Amino acid sequence: MTRSEDAVLRARLEMGIRDVADFPRPGVVFKDVTPLLGDAALFRDAVEAMSAPFRSLRLTHVVAIESRGFLFGAPVAMMVGAGVVPVRKQGKLPHDVRRAEYELEYGADALEIHADALDASARVLVVDDVLATGGTARATAQLVELLGGVVVGFSFLIELAFLNGRIGLAPAPVAAVLRY
After folding, report:
1. Residue 105 binned pLDDT confidence (cut-offs 50, 70, 90)
2. Which residues of 43-57 are buried (b: 16+ CB within 10 A; e: fewer)?
3. How far is Cα 172 from Cα 88, in angstroms, rounded to an integer?
4. Catalytic option among 68, 88, 138, 166
5. Which domain holds residue 85?
6. Which one is catalytic: 14, 48, 105, 145?
7. Crossing angle of helices 40-51 and 68-80, rounded to 10°
8. Residue 68 annotated to the active site
9. How do beta strands 29-32 and 107-114 pair?
């Protein structure tokens, strides 16, 4: 893709994202991706852009983070030829789980993964819609590593670069289609 084509794609994708002020808490500007999801061509282009940097990495699994990460993780997994594993908020998975707690930019929470979802042969791409402070992605990487898997990358539709979330994700590569 040429630089010009890349700029056009980014501009098109940005038109599918709306800012919602003071959600879910005062002072937070929420990046709402539902308009993008409702446009088949934009959604396809977003998924292609999120998967492109990782197609050659011999991935075995995409670990998708609840909840909007599920919407992007499953089609990214299909594009890279990998299985998909959900990471959910506490109490949502029906089987034996492992748990990691993390800090958000506006609070704290915990994530869980099925204890048998991955093993030492797993080469994992972590997918979510937005990278903010990196707490959710770091907790997900901890869960992958707890099960013996290796995180080979992180893919996001949006990165809020001013929050420096990618710093805590090294050494795995981090890709974001849009950076604000």
Report:
1. low
2. bebbbebbbbebeee
3. 22
4. 68
5. 3-179
6. 105
7. 60
8. yes
9. unpaired
